[in-house]
Write a structure and sequence with these properties.
alpha/beta, TIM Barrel, Glucose Oxidase, domain 1, 2 domains, 9-stranded mixed sheet, 18 helices, elongated, binds ribulose-5-phosphate, carbohydrate metabolism, HPS/KGPDC, RraA/RraA-like_sf, RibuloseP-bd_barrel
């Protein structure tokens, strides 16, 4: 039977243990002390997991690169059954790890993460005596859209080693992995960031246990663009800003029609001193999914009002974001059209026609290029450069999931400080 391994990639040991208990209740067979957890809690977390789960396989995700014998020994003596060594490590490290593993009665799993030619390396380590290999796409690489399944399929046809697979697996891809020949399906984020860990582990268990024949045909693969838009619609601007390391938020611009969220591509406009010609001309070259993003630089002369709003509604624009002022506030509000701006004033400027459309602009102190992704909600507006949009979308979804999980923990009696073990993690510099 294919084994399910839950990867405890959190840095708070108490949370890790709670999640492990919930995942075990959902059908996880192997419990992995993830690398960040081991770095945070040391071998104590292995001892603790061993005590709580005497009958489960405990994997120490050491990702050892050097001094294999010593690292295997300490994980083994703490209670691990399986220890990971990086495929990128020198053969000497792998040999030493295998010797130590034999001595202390544990198994070695070689992790192919980021190895340029994983199939060739898998054959080499098999010759060295390794019998457990992990086809693995790391978390940061997953965010760019890389998946382990194709490599898994190729490796399964060529090796007798037991194969584990990891890399952002969900029930759908975990099922595919089982069909492709995986013996151990390793799942982190999908389970540990779920607001119902037990159910999510059970979903993976069910997907893996279904035979290939009884599995529903895989859903048609979405384009990256569709996937991105769906994620941006689901997450908040706060999640996106976190995913961008607190960058991307426009300053001084807020929703003038609260409750309206926008997700779309920027049509940029630069104009000056209330000049509203270029902004309203930009509406005519925009359509569904477009957001007109305007730098006007004057908070006291409006360059957008009720008539521009009506035109934008008729052309089915997604919204408008203005570093500058709007007027006709009552008409804007009645329209329900998403308008984000820095100020509301009654007086307008003149349509002189100065400025440009679809050039790089600065709006709310952020650089915006034509085609960049703009997301606005009641917390504000963020700009996501188009070149990094897929990665940022995927990362913001992880932030969203983690917050949902924390929300559940706080609902169940934890405080935010205790859930995140804040005292331990205060900056000691
Ligand atoms: O070892 C890891 C990262 O290096 C993870 O434990 C592994 O990738 C599983 O987690 P996820 O399902 O989130 O990818």
């Amino acid at each position: 039977m294919v084994q399910i391994q839950v990867a405890l990639d959190v840095v708070e040991p108490d949370r890790a243990v709670r999640i492990a208990e919930e995942a075990a209740a959902g059908g996880a067979d192997w419990i992995e002390a993830g690398t960040p957890l081991i770095k945070s809690a040391g071998m104590d977390i292995i001892r603790r997991l061993r005590k709580i789960f005497p009958d489960k396989i405990i994997l120490a995700d050491m990702k050892t690169m050097d001094v294999g014998a010593a690292e295997v020994e300490m994980a083994a003596k703490s209670g691990a059954d399986v220890v990971t060594i990086l495929a990128a490590a020198d053969d000497a490290v792998i040999r030493q790890s295998l010797l130590s593993a034999k001595k202390y009665g544990v198994r070695i799993m070689v992790d192919l993460i980021s190895f340029p030619d994983p199939l060739a390396r898998a054959k080499e380590v098999e010759v060295l005596g390794v019998d457990l290999i992990n086809v693995h796409v790391g978390i940061d690489a997953q965010m760019t859209g890389v998946s382990p399944i194709e490599t898994l399929k190729k490796l399964a046809a060529e090796t007798d080693m037991e194969i584990a697979v990891a890399g952002g697996l969900t029930p759908e891809t975990a099922g595919e992995a089982a069909d492709a020949g995986a013996d151990i399906v390793i799942v982190g984020s999908y389970i540990i960031n779920s607001d119902n860990v037990t159910q999510s582990a059970a979903d993976i268990r069910k997907a893996v246990d279904l035979s290939a024949k009884s599995r529903a045909p895989a859903a048609e693969k979405k384009s990256k663009e569709t996937e991105m838009i769906e994620i941006f619609k689901k997450v908040s601007t706060s999640n996106i800003s976190d995913a961008m390391h607190r960058k991307g938020a426009m300053q001084g611009i807020s929703s003038k029609n609260p409750g309206k969220k926008i997700v779309g591509r920027a049509v940029t406009v630069r104009s000056f001193g209330g000049d509203w010609a270029k902004p309203v001309e930009a509406i005519d070259i925009s359509g569904p999914g477009d957001i007109v993003v305007i730098y006007n630089g004057d908070r006291d002369i409006a360059m957008w009002g009720g008539l521009a709003t009506l035109t934008a509604v008729n052309r089915k624009l997604e919204g408008v974001v203005i570093d500058g002022a709007v007027r006709d506030f009552d008409e804007v509000q009645k329209s329900d059209f998403p308008v984000f701006a820095s100020n509301v004033v009654p007086n307008a400027g003149d349509p002189k026609g100065l400025g440009e459309i679809n050039v790089e602009i600065i709006c709310g102190n952020q650089t915006v290029n034509p085609g960049d992704y703009i997301i606005g909600d009641d917390s504000g507006v963020v700009v996501v450069p188009k070149e990094r949009a897929y990665e940022i979308a995927r990362r913001s979804e992880e932030v969203w999931k983690r917050e949902k999980r924390l929300f559940e923990e706080i609902k169940n009696g934890k405080t935010l400080a205790s859930a995140l073990e804040l005292l331990k993690w205060e900056n000691k510099k």
